[in-house]
Amino acid sequence: MSGSLVKMDGIEKAFPGVKALNSCSFELLPGEVHGLVGENGAGKSTLMKVLAGIYKKDGGTILVRGTPVDFSTTKQAQAMGISIIHQELNLMKHLTAAQNIFIGREQKRGMPFLVDDNEINKKTAELFSRINFHLSPSVPIAGLTVAQQQMIEVAKALSFNMDVLIMDEPTSALSESEIEELFKVIRQLKDQGKGIVYISHRMDELHQICDRITVMRDGNYVATTPIPQISTEQIIAQMVGREIYESRHLHGDTSKNEVVLEVKNLNRGRVVRDVSFCLHRGEILGFAGLLGAGRTETMRLIFGADPMDSGEIFIKGRPVSIGHPQDAVRHGIGYLSEDRKRYGLALGMTVAANTVMASLGKFFKPLGIIDEAAVKTVSREYVEKLNTKTPSIFQLVKNLSGGNQQKVVVGKWLVRDSDILIFDEPTRGIDVGAKSEIYKLLNELADQGKSIIMVSSELPEILRMSHRTVVMCEGRVTATLDAGESTQSKIMYYATLRNKANPNENEV
């Protein structure tokens, strides 16, 4: 179509051992928000990285406003008006927000080596104003929340004079109010004739913001359909081609089971304030709350990743001292961080190395030699158990999709055979098919007697999976709800119930 902003045909891309794209097609029109969906590993991010000049295509054609292009660098793509916001944050923590946004494009002050910070701060403030984001341009990135960093990535993308904006899971760390602000920006850009590629696993968002949707599966193009003509169920069927586990698991009653973890009066500054709760054997305990509620901060204290000001932790009724993650691991606690790439994986190492990383002591032979055969056996076992898509256990983890990276982290703690597992946003950035597998896995683990804490920002996920739900607001526990009494409206009520601690004291 001559009126296309972007038209991609027959795109091919391969990596060692992986055919990532197989004759894929994609079209973006002016003034269109085009959803791009598929399971993790379907090739959607790879296709967009080809368009953005991050990867060089192996075959096929790309037209931008009717002009044939063959990008080999991101600067070439940016010169043609194409910008991308990556799923994984890509900011330099030691620089300010403004310096990150304009890195490589800094305004100079007199001499070539003097950066005019006042000018880039002014331009950054204008960008923040456009997206109604309230933050000082001179604030360092280190110490900002994931959500704040995500909005800075949005502003950085908007700082280029672009016609095509690719957004890869832009809302995965945003609150509802922040998502609505982002949608306002997207609609403004759409009204200006810009084209938006919107990659997301959140079906409600796709129906809310997109005009058309393209589905990919296993590196292949499946279909492109106007949003009004396709249901969520049809999208999922095109994505996965198999039955998806969506029904609520019928949990047994765990309230009389042994208490394996008890936390009393946990405190750290203003982010965690007098938090108390307990976890039973075989229980999935959900933690709900808005961004900044203190859920992740609480989990990091329990795991010893941050020091507590005060509080007590009991494992199976016995007080324990956890000052370091090694202490937590020794007491049978495994932690899957919301930031898997930063805290959960060694990206430059193989699937096998990551799988046994937390359990190396099990694989030593005499004289400190690692039993390579045992490592291979257990790694292959958990790749198969978790249905991890990888060409081999020797594939570098950085080359896997986000969902498959998450499965490697899960496998690491299962090999360790931890009794208490803390899952912080276990399905963030994961497609519906991989979510289904994670849900099944969590329920199987609970049925086997493992005890699970699940922090999630998705209320349907909390309601589907949890025996009980602990709700937090501004660092405090404001309610503990049994499965039978939990509803989205009730959770949201307690998630916004400020300055009131523990109205529901029936925690055990």
How would you describe the overall organization of this protein?
32% of the residues lie in helices and 26% in strands. The chain is an alpha/beta fold. The protein has three domains: 6-240, Rossmann fold (3-Layer(aba) Sandwich), CATH 3.40.50.300; 258-332 and 420-434 and 451-508, Rossmann fold (3-Layer(aba) Sandwich), CATH 3.40.50; 340-417, no CATH class. The strands form six sheets. Strands 6-9-10-3-11-12 form a six-stranded mixed β-sheet, sandwiched between helices. β19 (364-365) and β20 (369-370) form a beta hairpin. The N and C termini lie far apart (63 Å).
Which key features would you list for this structure?
508 residues; alpha/beta; Rossmann fold; 3 domains; six-stranded mixed beta sheet; 17 helices; 26% strand; disordered C terminus
Concise overview:
The chain has 508 residues and is of the alpha/beta class. It has 3 domains: 6-240, P-loop containing nucleotide triphosphate hydrolases (Rossmann fold); 258-332 and 420-434 and 451-508, Rossmann fold, CATH 3.40.50; 340-417, no CATH class.
Note the total helix count: 17
Query: Which percent range describes the beta-strand content?
Result: 25-35%
Shape: globular
How many domains is the backbone divided into?
Answer: 3
Text of the CATH class of the largest domain:
Alpha Beta
Uncertain ranges: 499-508
The CATH superfamily name of the largest domain is: P-loop containing nucleotide triphosphate hydrolases
Neighbour order of strands in the largest sheet = 6-9-10-3-11-12
What CATH architecture label of the largest domain applies? 3-Layer(aba) Sandwich
Let me know the average pLDDT: 86
| Structural class by helix and strand composition | alpha/beta
- Give Rg in angstroms: 24 Å
Distance between the termini: 63 Å
Number of DSSP-assigned strands: 24
